[in-house]
From TrEMBL:
<dbReference type="InterPro" id="IPR015947">
    <property type="entry name" value="PUA-like_sf"/>
</dbReference>
<dbReference type="InterPro" id="IPR002740">
    <property type="entry name" value="EVE_domain"/>
</dbReference>
<dbReference type="Pfam" id="PF01878">
    <property type="entry name" value="EVE"/>
</dbReference>
<protein>
    <recommendedName>
        <fullName>EVE domain-containing protein</fullName>
    </recommendedName>
</protein>
<feature type="domain" description="EVE">
    <location>
        <begin position="29"/>
        <end position="137"/>
    </location>
</feature>
Amino acid sequence: MSRRYFIGFLTKGDVDRCVRGGYTVFPQRETYTRVRRGDWVVYYSARDVFHYKAQWVRRFTAVGVVTGDMPYPVKDAHDNKEWRSRARFYPDCVRVDARDVVGRLSFIPDANLWQHSLVPKRYGVREVVYEDFLVLAHAMRLPKSAYLRQGDIADPSAGLPNSTRLYPGNPQP
């Protein structure tokens, strides 16, 4: 089975909890029919906490790989049911302002209206192509050794169209 790539949507506080606890969280079990062991998840956080007056974050806040086989249900602090799976996160990754990368993501048709295109309609997770994952992984400074597949090129921006170059005009970090 091939590796897949997802963007999950949680508040920054919830993402921090996931990174500390070593697990992914999604609100619906159906999500885990999609996300499996070996798949990568990049979390996007629109706000700091789940409250309409909470501070805006609008960043990609964590990246990790799913290591658990089966999701398990858990009641969160607010007595809501959520589904977790073990994961290994890379806490040294940089949190990236979404506005700095959305123009290079293939599923965002208009960078000016990116928020409408980013959030999925269902399941709280969006599957993305490998090239979009590379854009995010590179921007977040994920070590290349963590995510490059056998036979991949060492520079994840090489071979991508100019519109999706990772750091156009800038040296690679």
